[in-house]
Amino acid sequence: MKKFLVLFFLGFFYFFPTKSPLASGDFETSFNVAQTVEENGVTFINQEISLVNRLSRVYATQYGLTLESSNIRNIKAYNADGPLETKIEKEGEIITITVIFSEKTVGTGKETKFNLTYESLDLAIKNGQVWEIYVPKLSNASLIENYFLSLRVPKNFGNPAYISPDPVSTNSSQTHQIFHFNKEKLAQRGVSAAFGQFQVFDFILDYHLENTTSKKSFMEIALPPDTSYQKVYYESIKPAPYNITVDQDGNWLAQYLLGDSQKLNIEAQGKVKIFSKPQESFPTPSSLSLSDSLLPQEYWQINDSLIQTTASNLSSIKDIYDYVVSNLKYNSERVKEGAQRLGASQAIRSPNQAICTEFTDLFITLARAKGIPAREVNGYAHTTNPSLMPLGTFIDVLHAWPEYWDEEKQHWIQVDPTWGNTTNGVDYFSQVDLNHFTFSIHGKDSSYPYPAGSYKATGAGGKDVQVSFGKFDSPGEENLIVSFDVTKKIFTKIKSEGTITIENKGSSAIYNPIIDIKAENLDLKLFPDKKAAILPPFAKINLDIEIVNQSILYHGTGKVILSIDNELYTHEIVVESSVFKFILPGILILLGVFIIIFLASKLTLKKIFAKKVI
Fold first, then answer.
1. Residue 555 belongs to what domain range?
2. How many CA atoms lie within 13 A of 317 on its CB side?
3. In this structure, is residue 207 part of a structural domain?
4. How far apart are the first and last CA of the chain?
5. Is 514 in contact with 540 (CB distance < 8 Å)?
6. Which terminus has fewer CB within 10 Å in the chain: N or C?
7. Are 98 and 87 in contact (CB under 8 A)?
8. CB 426: neighbour CB atoms within 10 A?
9. Per residue in 582-594, pLDDT tens?
């Protein structure tokens, strides 16, 4: 009896499940696989394979491997006796490798041992500042007795930004970091890893505003903000906004004053650093933001009966992620049609009609129904998978993914159920990659503010979002401009109001600035007592003050002193005594009038007296 041994185990390459003779348990199989990534990104794969006969009359004559990748080269097979014959068949992106055994290994317990080696050009890819490495998922794991993988990565790739799943052990050689995995680690998903400190994107974003009213109106745009996963540096915003405010979800809203029927084109240019893990120094959200991230919204119908029933059967946020990934199906045709957003209620009932918004909406809604704060992120996600961005060459096709609040870690945690579905097993729950760039965040409202790429001119198309890999330059120093709209002269006992404006002219946001205002020879009140948690670039805060000198006889100089993180800004004021300026001159005038009246009265009396004497 002869059997054709076929092992389809490279899940990330989209292998095609077929019925395997191994299902009968005819062979005990073991694999010891070494994947060595070289400095140029080429990965050398060496599979050391052992097949032990469990039956006396069954033996292996061939070994087959099917890969969905055209970037495979230098395929070789050999055993202790020398090279083995291989047959290679290519059909489009599919490569089938067949190893033919020259010797018959017959008998229970007899072992067929051989090596299959080849090089892959797309398992390790450098994107910008980061090397990304993927190890395929182990397929037909139940048919394999033992499986060990050693992933060798050059040390000069840098430290791992993330590795998922965690390796069972690590060690190193003189040139490589080595990560070890076993069957249990790879049976559920492949390895996803990135090496590098952070990713950098350059961006140019265009916005088009139009005031359709007959009066001046303020309008706003959402600029990419800092989050716990990213730090944004703005090189220019033209024209400069009137101000930039921060809403409770952390969006940066740039305000512009437009005249009646005015149109305005805005360009924002800069860089962003993307981190693999939330930054501990980033401010925690307010209790209001978290409570609002539990409420129903237009696209998040948490009170829907099917949503409630489904949520009740899910125990954890991981269960919610797995449910969404497993039950929805990505429909790229809907992207081509410019489909409308369905919302969670319709998405759960039409699982075959999902795009990224449906994956995101259903995850958020199920999480909120379970009492877990969750929100939507809109932005740009770099991908080489055309099914995720089918129209990206001609129009702006953005991506959506959710975040949930981890109470223990005290951070918003990003996940991407869409890519968890479309990449056939890559884990986007434990770790989102370094290619997700946030434009806007939706927690309080399920659709506002609109992300960059959504501010189109009437009747116009084209791309307004340009994002490319970049290099990080040292950021410029903080540049705070302080201006005093405060009088330069006051009089004692007379109150004077003024405004101190603090404007961030630097490229990045300033967090929790320690602001203190005091006065010398003056009493000062601040209306209101403002504390800025975040001061984005191009943003300003106005501090309204009231000053007075209560000493009626004082004459000299007063000072208003503003301190920002121990940097002092001083405004001098001439203080003149109201006594010498107003009261004393008034008294002198009154005294003079009195003297004149007195003298005039005396003269009049003298004349009257003189007449009587005559």
1. 480-576
2. 21
3. no
4. 167
5. no
6. C
7. yes
8. 22
9. 565 667 777 777 8
